[in-house]
Amino acid sequence: MHASKNIPKITTHVLQEMKLKGEKIAMLTAYDYSMAKIIDESGIDVILVGDSASNVMAGHKTTLPITLNEMIYHASSVMRAVTRALVVVDMPFGTYQGNSKEALLSAIRIMKESGANAIKMEGGEEIVESIDRILSAGIPIIGHLGLTPQSINKFGTYGVRATEEKEAEKLRRDAKILEEAGCFGLVLEKIPATLAAEVTQSISIPTIGIGAGPSVDGQVLVLHDMLGINQSFSPRFLRRYHNLYDEIRGSVFSYINDVKTASFPNDKEKY
Ligand code: KIV
Question: How far is CA 254 from CA 59, 124, 258, 268, in A?
Answer without folding.
Answer: 26, 50, 6, 18
